[in-house]
Amino acid sequence: MKTKRLLIIVLIVAGLLLIPFIGMQFSSNINWSGLDFLIMGILLLGTGLLIDLALRKIPDVKNLIIVCGIVLAVFFLVWAELAVGIFGTPLAGS
Questions:
Q1: Buried-state track 11-21, b at ≥16 Cβ within 10 A, e below 16
Q2: pTM of the full predicted structure?
């Protein structure tokens, strides 16, 4: 069962990464490098695995929603920082 869940998470991550890859074929506005795909893959996979862990370990629905919300908030903040630099760190995109 654990292997099936991991496979589903990996397939979802791959499907999400196909969106910018296919977009790059049709538009010059989307310009991702291999490093961009790697970093986003790690972020998506880490988020998916953390949410899966929370789903398996936290029995209380209220606490589960809070933990999943925090995981998603951190994901979106890191994504926004890497994309446009909302905090102005050296990791910020242009």
A1: eebeeebeeee
A2: 0.88
d(CA 27, CA 23): 6
Whether 94 is covered by a domain: the verdict is no
CA distance 86 to 90: 11
The string of pLDDT tens digits covering residues 8-37 is: 999 999 999 999 999 999 998 989 999 999
d(C-alpha 84, C-alpha 49), whole Å: 25
- Provide the token pair at 68: 């999943």
Q: Would residue 67 count as lying in a domain? A: yes
Write down the pLDDT at residue 62: 97
Q: Which domain holds residue 27?
A: 2-84
